[in-house]
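#help-structures

NK: newbie question. if I give both the sequence and a SMILES, will the prediction place the ligand too? trying with NAP
OV: yes, paste both and it writes out the complex. here, I ran yours:
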Amino acid sequence: MTVTYFITGANRGIGFQLAKQISADSNNVVIATTRSFANSAALQDLNRPNLHIIEYDVASPLEKMKQDLVPIEEYAPNGVDVVIQNAGIATANQKSILETTEDDLAKHFAVNTIGSVKVYQSIFPYWSKKVNPETVKKFIFISSSVSWVNNFFPMLSSHYGPSKAALNLVVRHIAFDHKSSELDHIKNSIIVPVHPGLVTTDMSKEALGDYNFDESPIPVLKPEESAGCIIKIIDNLEPKDNDTFISYDGTRVSW
Ligand SMILES: NC(=O)c1ccc[n+]([C@@H]2O[C@H](COP(=O)([O-])OP(=O)(O)OC[C@H]3O[C@@H](n4cnc5c(N)ncnc54)[C@H](OP(=O)(O)O)[C@@H]3O)[C@@H](O)[C@H]2O)c1
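OV: that's the protein plus ligand as structure tokens.
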């Protein structure tokens, strides 16, 4: 039976690799989002009948995001089983809190935190639609190691880190909300934030400036490796994983 995935920010970086690798299995249906069809040549070139592309900007008003998802009714009449909220931004990140600006904070919270909330709100009708005997419902939010409060990661991240920390708390609240859902498949769903590793994408190159990836003290992953790790995590999720933070290598992190 078919498992249907919804992946945001899938035109490049980790999101593209997720869409590519998951849609390589023709049993899967993948709905991949891009902010603009014009920037989605890599996705279009995959030319797979089980891969559908939707224009969707997580910084848009909620009503516009809901409207953008209407084609899912045709692409996945039984709804969506697995959501991967991957879209995010990290710019000019190497700053102290004294140096960070209101604009830095506003932009990062708008996409990484509030955008993620709106992804949850807009996809919920499709994600909660029907039980699929092939899989429990799963919702993955791509977070980051720089979001951890309890296990603070010593790296400058003055606005990106706080925006992902706030995202983690949103995830905890969603897990709490699901406990009282009237729908058993939502009550039993698994929702997790995942750190994808330090990955050589446009984002990390821009966010980390002159960081020496070749001599990094922490492992550096290619986007395809990170996506492979995330897929393995998703495939192996168990009910006890709900509301836990998982790192790309499968480590459960105290966040
Ligand atoms: N790379 C790392 O080392 C690393 C480490 C920790 C966490 N992460 C997280 O991993 C996720 C993917 O990052 P990446 O490294 O693959 O970054 P990336 O290569 O910069 O890709 C980011 C993706 O997000 C999309 N996006 C940005 N703003 C958006 C918006 N307003 N609405 C919809 N989509 C939007 C981008 O679309 P456009 O092409 O239109 O800009 C792009 O598809 C992010 O959540 C990031 O925070 C990455």
